[in-house]
From TrEMBL:
Molecular-function annotations in GO: carbon-sulfur lyase activity; metal ion binding
Record key words, sorted: Metal-binding, Zinc
Organism field: Potamilus streckersoni
Stored PANTHER family: CENP-V_GFA DOMAIN-CONTAINING PROTEIN (PTHR28620:SF1), CENTROMERE PROTEIN V (PTHR28620)
PROSITE patterns xref list: CENP_V_GFA
Record family assignment: Belongs to the Gfa family.
TM spans (from-to): none
Domain CENP-V/GFA residues, every copy: 40-152
One Pfam family it belongs to: GFA
Signal peptide: none
The protein's name in its UniProt record: CENP-V/GFA domain-containing protein
Domain of life assignment: Eukaryota
Length: 168
């Protein structure tokens, strides 16, 4: 497996636009062997909800185009339930469900930020919003486009369901 890490670089800015470019660096080898788990922490905007998650420093992020992910710009990575721990704010979370009601979209009642959720593709795990992690532990990340708009046909074409399995 080859993993790509993307680094966003500011090229130029003016009063109305920011121009960015994506730089791609490749690493070879088995990601699991060279990418051990590290402790990431994060939370919502107001600080009421805080969590920790054990995941690689080089993350595999999904950019889903389903209706809700597009609306909230939900770029997330998947972890097994055993690698996620809510540190504070359980009483400050509220949950939104729709369609099959399998996915649990939890967000802070105070600031409205969704830091994590239980995805339909991985009801035994968590989808963690990369932008809600505290700085300092993510080395880089690659982005995989996920066709959530055509969920039923696309889910069988990816390895997303394996992302919430505990690696022994």
């Amino acid at each position: 497996m080859i993993a790509s890490c993307f680094f966003w670089v500011l090229i130029e800015t003016d009063s109305l636009h920011v121009h960015i470019a994506r730089s791609n660096s490749r690493m070879s080898g088995q990601v699991e062997e060279i990418n051990p788990l590290v402790r990431h922490q994060g939370g919502c905007h107001c600080g009421t909800v805080k969590f920790e998650v054990w995941a690689p420093a080089r993350l595999h992020v999904y950019n889903c185009n389903c209706s809700i992910c597009v609306k909230k710009q939900n770029r997330h990575f998947i972890v097994p339930g055993s690698k996620f721990r809510l540190l504070q704010g359980e009483d400050s979370l509220t949950t939104y469900t729709f369609n099959t009601h399998t996915a649990k979209h939890m967000f802070c009642k105070t600031c409205g930020v969704q830091s994590f959720y239980v995805p339909r593709s991985n009801p035994d795990g968590y989808g963690v919003a990369i932008h809600c992690l505290d700085p300092g532990t993510v080395e880089c990340y690659d982005i995989e486009e996920f066709d959530g708009d055509n969920w039923e046909t696309h889910i069988v074409k990816t390895d997303i369901k394996q992302r919430s399995e505990d690696k022994k």
